[in-house]
Amino acid sequence: MSGMEEIAMTDQRATPLVEMRNINVAFGGVRAVQDASIELFGGEVVGLVGHNGAGKSTLMRVLSGAHPADSGEILIDGRPAMIRNPRDAKTYAIETIYQNLALADNLDAPGNLFLGRELTTRIGQLDDSSMESETRKVMQRLNPNFKRFRQAAVSLSGGQRQAIAIARAVYFNARIMIMDEPTAALGPAETAQVHTLVRQLKSEGIGIFLISHDIHDVFDLSDRIGVMYQGRIVETVQREGVTADDVLAMIIVGKRPEQLTSLEKAQLSV
Question: Which letter does DSSP use for residue 126 in this model?
Fold first, then answer.
């Protein structure tokens, strides 16, 4: 690798895909997100963990355009971004994979992948063959074992449905992906399929925010872990530098491990 290529790679790594700075969101008198800052690089998974109500989903709804921040700033590729609604988010190549996947159960894989963005022929008819061909191409990249292209989504497994939702985001050039509980209610085999998909996305340079209650998911997939507690980001840590117990302590107490008192450590060990 030449010196110029090394500099280019360093510069790319030095500029996050996403920076969320000092984000605040309140619902009435409840401060759901308090002065939260977090960043995401290309080809990285950042896990977001915390109790229900900790603020992680609200923070990601700000990035997805589903809920405006009361204050704070979002930068995409180092430049200020105005994200007021989901359509704005899509212009910045931000896609969200929700827990319910937002699939139409009566449609097959191509129908779901192109739902609302259907391909048509020159005379305005639906181009079913082109949509199936494009779906097969993107699935070949993500999940070569997927074969049920003409089956209604309702008849597919949870892992296969996740594959369709992820393929839809990838096909429309997502660079930043928010995944909300992607393995909830999946069995071990389907969870493994989703893990493989996430690693494939990473290898293609896509940055992923992973919201999960499953600490095993977080440790298996994340490069860094952001812990939220009562709307605040307690810390964003390198996965290799912490244990699951460290992360659980931050989730429960809202402090970094080195800040815990002897009494708190004793209570956590009970």
Answer: B
For strands 94-97 and 176-180, give the pairing. Answer: parallel
Decide: 38 and 59 in contact? Cβ < 8 Å: yes
pTM, full prediction: 0.86
Token pair for residue 189?
């085999």
Q: How many CB atoms lie within 10 A of CB 129?
A: 11
Is it true that domain 3-269 has CATH number 3.40.50.300?
Answer: yes
**Measuring CA to CA, which residue among 42, 59, 154, 56 is closest to residue 101?**
154
pLDDT per position as a tens digit, 173-197: 899 999 998 888 788 888 888 898 8
| DSSP letters for 188-240 | HHHHHHHHHHHHHHHHTT-EEEEE-S-HHHHHHH-SEEEEEETTEEEEEEEGG
Tell me the pLDDT tens digit for each residue of 86-124: 999 999 999 998 876 678 999 999 999 999 889 999 999
